[in-house]
Design brief:
about 100 residues; alpha+beta
Length: about 100
């Protein structure tokens, strides 16, 4: 299950570049600064994380009500870059269903 999640996040990382505005691609700063600014400005907090095949950490941050969301990529040195931003985040599967063999 974890491998599927990490794989999906890695694939998302490959597709993100095509939806990023050109001026957003160079928006980078230390991770702590991103987390602080997004928390203060939009009340966003990390809700998902995964390891991309590039060795970077992909994080999804969103506001409590899902009104705003941000995806950042952080390199091993702690430098985070803006990957995507948006509005109206919707959780499709807040919890994965339990497989029949796991419920026994």
């Amino acid at each position: 299950m974890l491998a599927i999640l990490v794989g999906a996040i890695a694939l998302l990382g490959y597709g993100v570049a095509s939806i990023i505005p050109a001026n957003a691609q160079s928006t980078c700063s230390p991770r702590a600064e991103f987390i602080e600014q997004l928390g203060e400005r939009y009340e966003e907090k990390p809700v998902a994380v995964g390891l991309a095949s590039t060795g970077k950490i992909l994080e999804v941050l969103r506001s409590k009500d899902g009104e705003t969301w941000t995806i950042i990529l952080t390199d091993p040195e702690g430098l985070s870059c803006l990957a995507a931003v948006g509005e109206e985040w919707l959780e499709l599967f807040p919890e994965f269903p339990v497989a029949a063999e796991e419920s026994i």
